[in-house]
Amino acid sequence: MEMDSIEVPKFKNKVAGVQKERIYLVSKKRRREELEKAHYNLFKLSSSKVILLDFQTASGTGALSAKQHYMSSCKADPSYTSSESWNRLRKAIRLFTGKERIFPVHQGRPAEDILSEVFIEKGDRVLSNGLFDTTFANLSHKGAVCIDMPAPLSERFFRGNIDTVKLEEALRDEKAKMVLMTLLNNTEGGQPVSLANLKRTAHITKKYKALLVVDACRIAQNAHFIWRDEVGGRTSISEIIRECFSLADVSYMSLKKDGLAHGGGFIVFDNNEVSAMLSEEFEKRIREVRKEIFRKEGNADGYGGMPCEIMEQGAQGLREVVTLKHLKKRMGDTEYFQEQLKKAGAKIKNDNPPGGDAVYIDAGALLPGIPYPAKTMEIALYEEGGIRSCGIDSIMFGEATRGEILRLAIPAGVYGKEHFDYAAYVFGKFMKRKNELKGFKITYDPGELRHFDGHFAPL
Ligand code: F0G
After folding, report:
1. pTM to 2 decimals?
2. Which architecture characterizes domain 2-58+324-458 according to CATH?
3. Is the Cα torsion angle 162, 164, 169, 171 positive or negative in sign?
4. What percent of the chain has pLDDT over 90?
């Protein structure tokens, strides 16, 4: 099938090197009908079959490796307790994090919910380098006042850092309960946090007796940036990851990102005393976390809401994600895609270096002066070429937004050069007609997390 002058891709990878899946570009008429039916909300499209290339998220959408596929389809153990799949996953988490106290959850957000439930009281302040949508929603839901403090714009590398000067000022002036570091920083253009910044943050946090929490969703990608741009390849990715975990009092991770699995997650606690509270108090909170998991997720010593197949995917994924072979390929894909999009006219948020698993386009700069530019671009890319992407913008964050960004996230191992070239070609078509676009309005606003559930209409 041809689309003007470029070949439309026909397949994507489902299991790396083993299984491909056919993909289709439905007609433009059908795409327009789908958009109307979905109220111009790409989370609500009727089926993945009407999407040619899906860059909405890289969370739980990757192609499995052959070993992950084998382990999850042939070796998974569904026992309710003492499951071998949980034993394998727990061992992999221990190796990955260097921690002994490990609790399972079914993905990242229940960890956010449970930690907020146990550690946050109404009015507590939480300071961060950048909270993602559900992290912000879970903390705010429990009454926390969340404040992002991204690094100053003058910093060229490690733009995911927290502003440690502001952090110390804020902690000196008023007590905060928690400092939460997102590795890497999804809301700040997928940019990494340096080891030096994390160490300094840990030092300040301890000094002022707050709890340091690490959201470790993309910690392996973050460690690759540290390995490449900060420590000059002197140590291994695994050692950097364990050092990052060792600085936090509490960490949690969605296995849907750097666990390379289709679900899953975990919480780990520091083995040592934390400065935020006395050790008996900390132990009491850990017991509360266990109870919350039993109540909401499943057996806290067994599976915590994860099906055994997912535990096998995660156990293997955590071993594969730390290899340079995997990380270089992943970063290489993002760099290539970003380059092609730039050639087609895209302006990139925090251009140097490209974010780990996604390209972040500065929609506000490309479509100045119109309402909801990221939504406008998102819809245009679907209409032009069946491409799904995701706005990280004022629809998602309301007044707390720090930009009108369109994210094209690259699911691990699914797409290759032909897909990226095609998407850049479609982007070029969007650039040619962008001056005709007038923006969007919100026709149904459900409030919090409205990007998932809201309705929109073109102006
Ligand atoms: N923290 C970060 C930094 C995230 O990016 C996400 C999810 C979560 C927590 C929640 O994890 O999905 O397993 O419940 N981010 C997705 C994304 C969905 O598209 O970036 P989850």
Report:
1. 0.95
2. Alpha-Beta Complex (3.90)
3. positive
4. 85
